[in-house]
Write a structure and sequence with these properties.
about 325 residues; mainly alpha
């Protein structure tokens, strides 16, 4: 009976609302700031690209690849963001329901643990989508591919992922598995699991500040500006604390090396210095902080609207009854 009750807490309409709202919020956010995501990925992965402010990186991409370069791989990314955040929000809110059942007092350390577990579940289920997306975003135009093949006709495509042309998300996943083995779809899983601490920190800070402000304002629902600001601050803290690992994750997903996380850290520090671990941080902060703020704002407004409608419907039925 207890097991059935726990399963009911995990599989509930309430958790589904949170998951859909989180997925929708993140999709709106990534669409709004997608060019910055492209710039951030290129700065993290392409060693030859000089670290600059976001606006200059975007200008370089437009000069090299045209306007379409700023939106290369948009649809696969939105699809993956939707799936990834659906998994994360569903798991996190399901675990919260179990952890705080019976009036248990919430506290930051427990939120951190729940967020980390939700992040690990998300990594295991969605890493192949993000590996494929990284390759799609880094894919150069066909003209450049043809030139590279003419200049380096002897290059083995299976050993150099950057020479492979991907037509879409499923095609990229298929070709990665074909050329590098199924294991290639989970490239960067270790740093990704470690990086599950990033959303965990983000949600811990967000939930702690949210509970404090709700208590201070004596109101369950806060203003849109407050949600926006809380999301921005929470993401900024999490990003600064975990940024070097995000660079490692991007490079592993891009298929640039296979020696592992520790080897890359030693090599990078030796050849480029400690500052290389924070290359592209300004672009990353600009992109992710703005995205997180917009995501939480959209998420909170959607969940508040849906639950308000549900309460009104329940009240109307109760009056009729």
């Amino acid at each position: 009976m207890a097991a059935g009750s726990k399963m009911g807490d995990l599989v509930s309409y309430k958790n589904l609302v949170h998951a859909v709202a989180g997925a929708a919020g993140s999709s709106v956010a990534i669409t709004s700031f997608y060019p910055l995501d492209v710039a951030r990925t290129k700065l993290q992965v392409e060693d030859h690209r000089e670290a600059k402010y976001s606006v200059f990186v975007l200008g370089d991409i437009m000069n090299e690849e045209g306007l379409q370069g700023l939106y290369r791989g948009w649809f696969p990314v939105v699809t993956s963001v939707w799936c990834s955040n659906f998994v994360y929000f569903y798991t996190f809110n399901g675990l919260k329901t179990l952890a705080y059942k019976g009036g248990a007092k919430p506290y930051p350390a427990k939120d951190l643990l729940l967020g980390f577990i939700a992040g690990v579940v998300n990594v295991v289920l969605t890493t192949p989508l993000w590996v494929a997306n990284t390759r799609l975003k880094l894919q150069v135009s066909k003209k450049k591919i043809d030139k590279r093949e003419d200049d380096h006709s002897k290059v083995n495509k299976a050993s150099n992922p950057s020479t492979t042309t991907y037509k879409g998300l499923l095609d990229a996943m298929y070709k990665i598995a074909r050329d590098e083995g199924v294991r290639g779809l989970w490239s960067g899983t270790l740093p990704s699991i470690v990086l599950a601490i990033n959303p965990a920190i983000q949600f811990m800070v967000y939930e702690a500040v949210k509970r404090r402000l709700q208590k201070y304002a004596d109101a369950k629902e806060l203003s849109g500006f407050v949600y926006f600001l809380m999301g921005a601050v929470a993401k900024m803290i999490a990003t600064i604390m975990t940024y070097p690992l995000q660079i490692i994750q991007s490079k592993l997903r891009a298929g640039h090396f296979h020696q592992g996380m520790i080897h890359w850290l030693k090599t990078t520090i030796k050849n480029q210095g400690w500052l290389a671990l924070y290359k592209g941080l300004e672009t990353k902060l600009t992109q992710t902080v703005a995205m997180a703020a917009l995501m939480f704002l959209t998420y909170e407004k959607i969940t508040a609207f849906v639950f308000r409608m549900m309460r009104q419907q329940f009240t109307a039925k109760a009056k009729v009854g």
